[in-house]
Design goal:
61% of the residues lie in helices and 0% in strands. The chain is mainly alpha-helical.
């Protein structure tokens, strides 16, 4: 993740990979009767896609979508966005994502944020993007939490609000996002949107360093030197 302190953060890359089943149990349907063919399962549709049979995958995701399965809606939307159907339709993709999001699929809400941010099928709408990112963030999407925080940090799609940016970077940092860990550390270091606290800054820089951020070890050394200097003046 690029840091807003240096450059404007670009759109989150639209995640176009088909998602795996979210349920812990098997996503199967009632066994076929003697007169009715077996209904398609999500696993079968995904298998068609993975072996490159896009026409079969499209038909099967359409069947799942008609049965009200959110992952059917989501994956059919992704195929339209990727241009993997004969007549890609961005408006249809948006409707499918909206329905999946309304049915509780958090990934769909996040994708709608990306849809509006990137202006797929039209002009970018950062206000709508932020609205969908916020819905996904409130449901625990770490990517959405970073997007919401960045919007508040930069004033893109929302009024600039450093306390809210800190709140959402902190949530993403607690979930293990290394970029958010670095950014909330920086905010504590500078007192930006939060009360300045070098010990909390050190805590989050250390977390970022442990998770592989290249700049964090240098910030740790600087914070340690500043803390040592402060202790020496007491």
């Amino acid at each position: 993740m690029r840091r807003p302190s240096s450059v404007l953060v670009p759109s989150l890359a639209l995640s176009l990979a088909l998602v795996l089943p979210l349920a812990t149990g098997p996503l199967t349907v009632q066994a076929a009767t003697a007169t009715a063919p077996a209904a398609i399962t999500l696993d079968q549709a995904l298998a068609s896609y993975e072996r490159g049979d896009l026409r079969a995958a499209e038909r099967q995701f359409q069947q799942l979508s008609k049965r009200g399965l959110p992952l059917g809606d989501y994956n059919l939307a992704m195929m339209n966005i990727r241009g993997e159907v004969p007549k890609p339709d961005a408006r249809l993709a948006k409707r499918l994502l909206e329905r999946a999001a309304e049915r509780g699929l958090v990934r769909a809400a996040l994708s709608l944020g990306e849809f509006y941010e990137q202006g797929i099928g039209g002009k970018p709408d950062l206000v709508q993007a932020q609205a969908w990112y916020l819905k996904a963030a409130e449901q625990g999407s770490v990517d959405a939490q970073v997007a919401v925080a960045t919007a508040f940090y930069l004033g893109r799609g929302a009024e600039k609000n450093f306390p809210l940016a800190a709140q959402w970077y902190r949530e993403a940092a607690k979930a293990g996002d290394v970029g958010a860990q670095y950014l909330i550390a920086s905010m504590y270091e500078r007192g930006l949107g939060v009360e300045k606290d070098l010990r909390l800054a050190r805590y989050w820089y250390d977390a970022a360093a442990r998770n592989g951020d290249d700049a964090a070890p240098f910030k740790l050394k600087a914070i340690d030197a500043e803390l040592a200097a402060s202790a020496g003046t007491i």
